[in-house]
């Protein structure tokens, strides 16, 4: 049996490993017996996606709260464990190291030291920039996979996120090397219940999405000019461009305002934002789309990143446009994440424009199960719930695709 496990999300890879340890782990008859697999490696692509409904349902908040205290400034008062100081003291050095030497192999946070009488389960955390993404590797000397692995990785994801935003480089793959992966015998029935009750969405499969858009990249500019091409149903692409030209205000050329083209493809939306006087950042999950993007080193910067995990600090952009993300990329499960992440990076009173599907026709019935779609009325409610004020609409109830122009409310949350 291979000791290497991969999946798109933390929860998926966790469930795979639980199955492996329960079915194939060796029983170690310690004072508190446990099943063990040694030298196990787990990896997942969606660094932003750490929420685990199955973990929460089975184990509740007890261990999440305990591990959170361990990584918090005051530590856990009962055990005396505190990783916060050691980690935060080293984050600054990691950022400096990677800014100076982007290909460094020694940007590492060390938690295990000879002087420490209470050796942590997490011994080191390594960060590396490869292929324009910031990867994180976590080394565990041991891990209670059932109860503590998920909470540990959730807390460490915040460290990954902090360094990503400091460098303005998107998060890449997360890998965990576990020297001793354990499930206590007393937890076996609970683990089996977690495995059996798992109900997971399988729409946002990062690698397959990247492969699809990589194939589209070379002919994208040519294809979107074809009236019969799928993005031009109901003239959706050109309607969005007209909507942008009409509603997005021109920038004061001296203000240094920044706009984001989220899911930029080859940069067609970015070009329009540039014409309005903005400095533009275009992000896309496909490196091939960025390779064919319309380069302009003065006004436009292209970055490999996921629209659900933007490598920028809060309130960074004045304007955000996103065409096609809710239509083609993310499913129902991620609508909240899409709105929350763009709200986070948008300045107060900043403008946000995006399109979405209002309904599918009879031939597309299977897409309803996974893809995001909602009526305009429901979209307005979604926007209000996520801190946006709806300003203008492009399209009608009969149009399959609508677009909205909205503004971030001040002090909404």
Can you give a write-up of this model?
- With 413 residues, the chain is α/β, with parallel strands linked by helices.
- It has two domains: 4-196, 2-Layer Sandwich (Thymidylate Synthase, Chain A), CATH 3.30.572; 206-408, Vaccinia Virus protein VP39 (Rossmann fold), CATH 3.40.50.
- 35% of the residues lie in helices and 25% in strands.
- The protein has 14 helices and 15 strands.
- The strands form two sheets. Strands 1, 2, 3, 4, 5, 6, 7 and 8 form an eight-stranded mixed sheet that branches. A seven-stranded mixed sheet has the order 11-10-9-12-13-15-14, with helices on both faces.
- Mean pLDDT is 90; it is low at 199-204.
Secondary structure elements and pairings:
Layout: E1 4-7, H1 10-24, E2 26-28, E3 34-44, H2 53-59, H3 62-70, H4 84-100, E4 107-110, E5 122-130, E6 133-140, E7 143-144, H5 149-167, E8 171-184, H6 188-196, H7 206-217, H8 220-223, H9 236-247, E9 258-262, H10 268-275, E10 279-284, H11 287-291, E11 300-304, E12 317-322, H12 325-329, H13 335-345, E13 346-357, H14 376-385, E14 388-394, E15 401-408
Parallel strand pairs: 1-3, 6-8, 7-8, 9-10, 9-12, 10-11, 12-13
Antiparallel strand pairs: 2-3, 3-8, 4-5, 5-6, 13-15, 14-15
Helix pairs in contact: 1-6, 2-6, 3-5, 4-5
GO molecular function, one term: S-adenosylmethionine-dependent methyltransferase activity
Keywords: Transferase
Protein name: Methyltransferase type 11 domain-containing protein
